[in-house]
Structures are given as structure tokens and as C-alpha cells.
């Protein structure tokens, strides 16, 4: 079997809801990162076999196979196809996994993976605005439960015994770590500046410097009157896109490209769809078994911060070193543009591995419906 390597990874800065990126159509936002990949690597887009694009709310501005039209918006040749994947919050991580599978199987030579979400233009829940997303059989199986991620986060906090104080401490640390990473220029190499009305937008705008548990204590619970989950310890609603160039090491040599990492192992797993957000735990166990590595072999972990209890429960069950978990902050601090987040996390993981000269990194995403992806990469 062939290998799969990541040649480059780029992302937009993450825009807050109704912020700097809100006036840009998500096809055009996607095109910005596709164009950046071409500019940075010098690859001829006509050699791309497929564009595999994650997007969650595939209605309105994000309908009609946005992966295909993103490539057209970038001016790529019409023969370059595109597809759009929805594995909820893990959509663009699944895009990476699917791209790697394609080149490893020898069915493609060069694939671009990534994703986008403009939550300003296509609000969260738009795809469920009409109709009944859960049919009678599922409703019967789960006693009519409404499948609410916020309630799932509350259940996790209760099951693992996380107090509101603990969750708010974690949330504040996410902002502090993200601020430190921004200040030392750690994201500069992979963030594509975006022209917005003649001004250059280049820094994630959701960050709130000086966030503290004391400030967060004043926020009202979002899902239950006596709950511990609120806007400050949850991921932010955001806009953004990211893209990765995937090929084989052999094809990279032929094209004169220098890979930065090897796709080592991947796994996907399911868990209880009511609690919903615990999937990263079995997915991590599965990918470690598949890889032959131990938790201690991994130098950095990116566990998407959908809600603060998610990475904390993952940490408690896996026994990972807490200093290796989300060392550059996460979605609580800078945002979670659903379909783009998996690829965005990968750019963050690669940045940390480069900074610390780490060999292995692992990222995992909780996803609506109780599934989760886990991916291990090896730095080259």
C-alpha cells in the first residue's frame, strides 16, 4: 500500500459571528485557501484528482456541493472535481481521512482536503429548520430524546464530576494559551490573510484576552437553569476555512514537493448519541491500537473544544499528559466554524509539532450523533 503525506496546510483567520468574514460567500472563502495552496506549493491545480470538502449546514449559501464550486471559484480547471462531506463537526477531518485513503489505495495521486463554514451566513441548525431530522425508528429507540449537544455536555460534566469552576478554569486557560501562541507568531506561517474592504484580516478575532474564571462566573447557563455550560465555556460560533494538500511521498518527489507530515493512522468510532460528545475517547483508543503507539508516544493532542467537558473527560479517561492537550488554545478561545474545524485543528497541530520538534501528533473531534474521528500524523 502507498503512503499518504501532507505537503502543506493553510487556513483563514477565524472570524467571529457577523465579524470580518461574514460578508464573504463561503465558496469564495474556500477559494482563498485553495488559491493559497497553489501559491505556496507551486502545484498545477490541473493535477488535483479531487477536492474533498467538509461542510455541515449544506443549505442556502453552502448548498449545491460547495466542494465542487469552491474549486471553480478558485479558477481551477473544470475537469477538477469536488465533493462535499458531512460528518458533523468532524467533516473536514473526515475529508483529510478520505483523501489519505484515496491516495493510499492508489485511486488518486493528489487530493486537496479541507472545509468551510460560514455560520454568520448559514446559521447553526439551518439544515433542521424544516422537517423532522430524526425518524420514527430513532425516536422510538431513544424515547423521543431531542439530541441536544448542550444537554450532552451537561451530562458529561455530571458524569465526570466537573464543577462549573473547573470548566471555567479550563475555558480561561484556552484563551490564555491561544493569546500566547498568537503573540509568538506561531500561527503566522499557515494563516492566509484575507482582504476585507481594503484592510488585511489575519488574526483570529474571537479571542478575549484577560478572560478569567471570575469573569466567566457571571454568565448564565445556556441549556438548563442550574447547569454548568454557558457561552464562555463553549465553542464560539464562527466563520472560517482551511485546506491541506495530500499526495504520496513518491508523487511528491515527482512534483518537486517537500512533505511536512505523514498520515500515520486514522479511525472513526461511535458512542452514545444522547451524551453524544464522548466519541473522542473510544476513537482515540481505536486509533492507538491501530497505530501500535501508546498515549505517551504522542507529543501533542488536539481535542476539539466543542464544550469544556469534552477535552476534560477525554483527558480523564485516556490518562494523557495535560500539558500536551490543546497547548495552543482551541475553539473556546478562537471559534469553531463547523465544517472547517477539522482541517483548522490539523494546521494547529502541525504548528505545535514544528515548534517543539515532535514526532507524533493526534487530533480528535466529537461530532453530532455521537461519532468521532481520530487521526495520528508523523512529522517529517
UniProtKB/TrEMBL annotation:
The keyword Lipid metabolism does not apply. Keywords: Acyltransferase, Transferase. CDD domains: thiolase. InterPro entries: Thiolase, Thiolase-like, Thiolase_C, Thiolase_CS, Thiolase_N. It comes from the Bacteria. It is an enzyme of class 2 (transferase). Residues 5-249 form the Thiolase N-terminal domain. SUPFAM superfamilies: Thiolase-like (SSF53901). Its EC number is 2.3.1.-. Residues 258-379 form the Thiolase C-terminal domain. One of its GO terms (molecular function) is acyltransferase activity. Belongs to the thiolase-like superfamily. Thiolase family. This is Thiolase family protein.
Amino acid at each position: 500500500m502507498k503512503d499518504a503525506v501532507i505537503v502543506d496546510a493553510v487556513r483563514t483567520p477565524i472570524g467571529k459571528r457577523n465579524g470580518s468574514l461574514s460578508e464573504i460567500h463561503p465558496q469564495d472563502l474556500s477559494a482563498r485557501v485553495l488559491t493559497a495552496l497553489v501559491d505556496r506549493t507551486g502545484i498545477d491545480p490541473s493535477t488535483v484528482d479531487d477536492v474533498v470538502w467538509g461542510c455541515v449546514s449544506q443549505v442556502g449559501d453552502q448548498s449545491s456541493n460547495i466542494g465542487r464550486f469552491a474549486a471553480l471559484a478558485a479558477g481551477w480547471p473544470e475537469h477538477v472535481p469536488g465533493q462535499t462531506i458531512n460528518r458533523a463537526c468532524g467533516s473536514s477531518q473526515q475529508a483529510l481521512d478520505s483523501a489519505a485513503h484515496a491516495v493510499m489505495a492508489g485511486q488518486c495521486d493528489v487530493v486537496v482536503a479541507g472545509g468551510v463554514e460560514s455560520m454568520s451566513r448559514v446559521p447553526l441548525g439551518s439544515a433542521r429548520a424544516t422537517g423532522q431530522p430524526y425518524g420514527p425508528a430513532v425516536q422510538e429507540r431513544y424515547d423521543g430524546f431531542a439530541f441536544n449537544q448542550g444537554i450532552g455536555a451537561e451530562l458529561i460534566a455530571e458524569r465526570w464530576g466537573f464543577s462549573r469552576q473547573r470548566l471555567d478554569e479550563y475555558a480561561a486557560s484556552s484563551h490564555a494559551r491561544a493569546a500566547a501562541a498568537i503573540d509568538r507568531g506561531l500561527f503566522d506561517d499557515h494563516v492566509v490573510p484575507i482582504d476585507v474592504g481594503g484592510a488585511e484580516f489575519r488574526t483570529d478575532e474571537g479571542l478575549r484576552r484577560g478572560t478569567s474564571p471570575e469573569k466567566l462566573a457571571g454568565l448564565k447557563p445556556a441549556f438548563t437553569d442550574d447547569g454548568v455550560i454557558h457561552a464562555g465555556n463553549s465553542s464560539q460560533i464562527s466563520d472560517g476555512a482551511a485546506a491541506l494538500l495530500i499526495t504520496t511521498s513518491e508523487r511528491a518527489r515527482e512534483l518537486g514537493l517537500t512533505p511536512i507530515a505523514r498520515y500515520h493512522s486514522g479511525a472513526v468510532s461511535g458512542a452514545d448519541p444522547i451524551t453524544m460528545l464522548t466519541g473522542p475517547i473510544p476513537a482515540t483508543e481505536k486509533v492507538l491500537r491501530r497505530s501500535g503507539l501508546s498515549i505517551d508516544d504522542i507529543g501533542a493532542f488536539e481535542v476539539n473544544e466543542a464544550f469544556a467537558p469534552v477535552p476534560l473527560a477525554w483527558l480523564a479517561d485516556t490518562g494523557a499528559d495535560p500539558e500536551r492537550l490543546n497547548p495552543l488554545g482551541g475553539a473556546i478561545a478562537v471559534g469553531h466554524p463547523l465544517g472547517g474545524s477539522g482541517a483548522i485543528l490539523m494546521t494547529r497541530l502541525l504548528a505545535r509539532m514544528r515548534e517543539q520538534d515532535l514526532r507524533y501528533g493526534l487530533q480528535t473531534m466529537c461530532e453530532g450523533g455521537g461519532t468521532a474521528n481520530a487521526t495520528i500524523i508523523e512529522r517529517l
